């Protein structure tokens, strides 16, 4: 039941037995605590063990005079300032303890000032002593004993006894001085309490003389704590009750703590909960974050942060770029577009005489790694002007408005060295299309960039070059004439461009005589300039590992296959049966490609596992293909089906494997594109059906026709690969495998 109650399945107020058990448990706990307190008092009063005495802390002149002549704060005394620490410091963390100490000292000084200005008000004195006792119990003892001009009452006396106990200073307690302090305290002490204290001093019994200072302090505390109606009902004072203290004192001592119905009330400080400690820590961390953020923003605004390395990375200047147009290969058309910019920077009068103006912005678009950044550096190198470069992501940080400020700083730095070039790489990070849900900081940065490009103040002599591989995401206001006037596309290099790039990189290394860069260029369709550099670097590393003096063609082939297909899986466990099936499968592709007109020439066939493929046959086109004819598409489908045909001829139809899955997929994709997009089907007609499958916008009957035509094309390709394409296929294949 208790587990269900803790899990939230039961509610406490629904069970009378639980409430009764809880009440009884609380009563038992209170009785046990009262019994422990009574045992402690009895042991203390009955003990004859001497307690080591210590020299009493006499008031020093460092405290100064309390009234008149200027009051010195007891908190500023060297013995008490920060000496005691926080009593609940165990519940605080290192980060919050220091701040809490400062706040507590400030509050104590304010309360002490009020208490010193109201010396006759015991309530104010009690409030100050209560707050002071939390951290400085020694200061409470000294203020109570050394400054009789401050009013005290029973509450102050109890705080004094508590401070004696916490400071372990019972040996400095003087009963006569305490009674005299209570008499002159001006706190309207109850007369019964004063009489009982006087009886405690005047009693001359033998047991009284043997009382230690600890016992005297405990007895006096019992008398003060028993003040009130319970004490008055205890009998007459000084009635000579035969006890240790006399009638009044004895009745007082037995009134509190001697009966469970009349316990000694003890106020304890409960430690703060974990939730409260976490909340306090989070609050202080938040305050520190706000302060640091504000300070950083102020330093950044004043320009002092740059000296400390806080903001300067967004403005990077490459003085005197040494890159020329001749160092940029594979993009001749893009270089031709940029030559007029260089001509304007070198000779602006040639264009301004006819009213022409320099384009404010130039946008370079194209896939990653095609040389957009290199082209921008080449412009600066050819024109011999300062070149400032940054990236779109460097403008934005956590502070609102910092992006717009950095844009202004970038253009101001370029104005000082005009004419100059500003290059912003990945400009789509800051110039994306604005939306209603965008953060205001992003909008502010883009708006500032728009103003700097074509605002009220003209930036004569400054050309802004932006680069992106995602032009569709740019804001339309950024692309209009007057901001980015010219858009230059930097596509992937063609076969001639790839050869030029390979030749440029080959000058920095040593190639073997068998290396044919033209073959490498033909076999790296779709490679960018960065990919070709990676190819050359991978080949150089492989040759170094193998201990070769130069890079051979075999090493280049290894590096190319590693980039395209992945690393070799030399440790893959391939059975002899699987390897044999893979070999026949790849041989089928190669044989059909050799015998089929329109197929691309074979470059290499291998059964070395790479990536997810157990083998592959690579083709080597004569050049980059921008389009395909019907014959070439049908030949591609025939070659794709050749592997499955070979498995069926050698191992039988029942032993054909799933290795042709990728081949069938490619053949099906070609057939579906021929039917839905290229108009090569008489049944469907010369129409275009969009979508990935070409059936999204088609009717039900048209979809059925599309599926039927795709099936016919793939089946005919399979037939041509096996029998129809050439009558000698079976004999030629048997000749190959034997």
Walk me through this protein's architecture.
This protein has 738 residues and is mostly helical. It has six domains: 2-39; 61-255, no CATH class; 274-308; 316-489, Rossmann fold (3-Layer(aba) Sandwich); 495-565, Helicase, Ruva Protein, domain 3, CATH 1.10.8; 576-737, Peptidase M41 (Methane Monooxygenase Hydroxylase, Chain G, domain 1), CATH 1.20.58. It contains 28 helices and eight strands. It has helices at 2-6, 16-46, 94-117, 122-133, 137-146, 154-167, 175-183, 191-202, 206-209, 213-225, 229-232, 247-255, 274-302, 332-346, 349-352, 372-383, 402-416, 440-453, 476-479, 495-506, 517-522, 529-546, 553-565, 576-595, 630-651, 661-676, 700-724, 729-737; strands at residues 316-318, 361-365, 387-391, 420-425, 462-468, 486-489, 602-606, 616-619. A six-stranded mixed β-sheet has the order 1-3-4-5-2-6, sandwiched between helices. Helix 25 (630-651) packs across helix 27 (700-724). The longest helix has 31 residues, at 16-46.
Structural class: mainly alpha
Q: Which overall shape is indicated by the principal axes computed on the Cα atoms?
A: elongated
Binned, the helix content reads 40-55%
Biggest sheet layout: 6 strands, mixed
């Amino acid at each position: 039941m208790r587990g269900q109650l803790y899990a939230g399945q039961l509610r406490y107020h629904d069970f009378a037995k639980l409430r009764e058990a809880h009440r009884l448990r609380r009563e038992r706990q209170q009785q046990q605590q009262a019994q422990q307190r009574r045992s402690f008092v009895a042991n203390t009063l009955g003990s004859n063990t001497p307690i080591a005495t210590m020299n009493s802390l006499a008031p020093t002149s460092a405290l100064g005079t309390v009234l008149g002549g200027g009051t010195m704060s007891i908190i500023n005394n060297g013995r008490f300032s920060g000496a005691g620490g926080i009593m609940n410091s165990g519940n605080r963390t290192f980060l919050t303890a220091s701040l809490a100490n400062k706040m507590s000292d400030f509050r104590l000084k304010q309360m002490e000032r009020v208490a010193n200005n109201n010396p006759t008000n015991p309530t104010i004195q009690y409030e100050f002593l209560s707050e002071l006792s939390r951290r400085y119990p020694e200061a409470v003892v000294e203020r109570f004993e050394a400054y009789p001009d401050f009013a005290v009452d029973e509450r102050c006396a109890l705080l004094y006894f508590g401070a004696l106990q916490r400071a372990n200073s019972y040996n400095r307690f003087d009963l006569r001085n305490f009674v005299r302090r209570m008499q002159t305290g001006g706190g309207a002490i109850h007369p019964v309490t004063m009489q009982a204290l006087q009886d405690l001093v005047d009693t001359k019994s033998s047991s009284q003389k043997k009382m230690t200072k600890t016992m005297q302090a405990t007895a006096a505390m019992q008398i003060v704590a028993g003040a009130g109606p319970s004490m008055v009902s205890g009998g007459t004072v000084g009635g000579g009750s035969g006890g240790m203290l006399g009638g009044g004192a004895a009745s007082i001592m037995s009134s509190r703590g001697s009966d469970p119905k009349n316990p000694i009330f003890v106020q304890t400080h409960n430690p703060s909960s974990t939730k409260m400690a976490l909340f306090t820590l989070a609050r202080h961390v938040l305050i520190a974050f706000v302060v640091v953020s504000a300070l950083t923003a102020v330093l950044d605004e004043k320009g002092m942060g740059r000296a400390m390395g806080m903001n300067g990375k967004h403005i990077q200047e490459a003085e005197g770029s040494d890159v020329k147009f001749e160092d940029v290969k594979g993009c001749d058309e893009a270089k031709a577009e940029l030559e007029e910019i260089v001509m304007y920077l070198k000779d602006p009068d040639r264009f301004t005489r006819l009213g022409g103006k320099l384009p404010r912005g130039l946008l370079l678009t194209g896939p990653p790694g095609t040389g957009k950044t290199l082209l921008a550096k080449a412009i600066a190198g050819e024109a011999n002007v300062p070149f400032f470069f940054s990236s779109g992501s460097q403008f934005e940080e956590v502070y609102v408005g910092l992006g717009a400020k950095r844009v202004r700083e970038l253009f101001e730095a370029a104005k000082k060295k005009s004419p100059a070039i500003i290059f912003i790489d990945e400009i789509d990070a800051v110039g994306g299309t604005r939306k209603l849900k965008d953060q205001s900081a992003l909008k502010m940065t883009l708006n500032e960039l728009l103003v700097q490009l074509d605002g009220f103040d003209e930036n004569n002599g400054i050309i802004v070059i932006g680069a992106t591989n995602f032009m569709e995401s740019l804001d339309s206001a950024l692309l209009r004439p007057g901001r980015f006037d010219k858009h230059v596309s930097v596509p992937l290099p063609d076969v001639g461009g790839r050869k030029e790039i390979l030749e440029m990189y080959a000058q920095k290394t040593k190639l073997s005589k068998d290396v044919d860069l033209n073959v490498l260029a033909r076999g790296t369709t779709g490679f960018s300039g960065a990919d070709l550099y990676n190819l050359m670097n991978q080949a150089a590393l492989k040759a170094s590992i193998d201990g070769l003096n130069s890079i051979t063609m075999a090493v280049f082939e290894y590096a190319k296959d590693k980039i395209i297909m992945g690393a070799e899986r030399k440790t893959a466990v391939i059975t002899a049966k699987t390897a044999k099936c893979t070999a026949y499968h790849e041989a089928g592709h190669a044989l059909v490609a050799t015998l089929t007109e329109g197929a691309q020439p074979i470059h290499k066939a291998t059964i070395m596992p790479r990536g997810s493929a157990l083998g592959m046959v690579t083709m080597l086109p004569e050049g980059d293909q921008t389009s395909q004819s019907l014959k070439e598409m049908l030949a591609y489908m025939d070659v794709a089906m050749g592997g499955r045909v070979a498995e069926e001829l050698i191992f039988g139809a029942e032993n054909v494997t799933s290795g042709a899955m990728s081949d069938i997929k490619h053949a099906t994709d070609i057939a579906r594109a021929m039917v839905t997009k290229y108009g090569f089907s008489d049944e469907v007609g010369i129409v275009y059906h969009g979508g990935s499958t070409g059936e999204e916008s088609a009717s039900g009957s048209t979809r059925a026709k599309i599926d039927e035509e795709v099936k016919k094309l793939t089946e005919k390709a399979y037939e041509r690969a096996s029998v129809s394409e050439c009558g000698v296929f079976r004999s030629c294949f048997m000749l190959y495998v034997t």
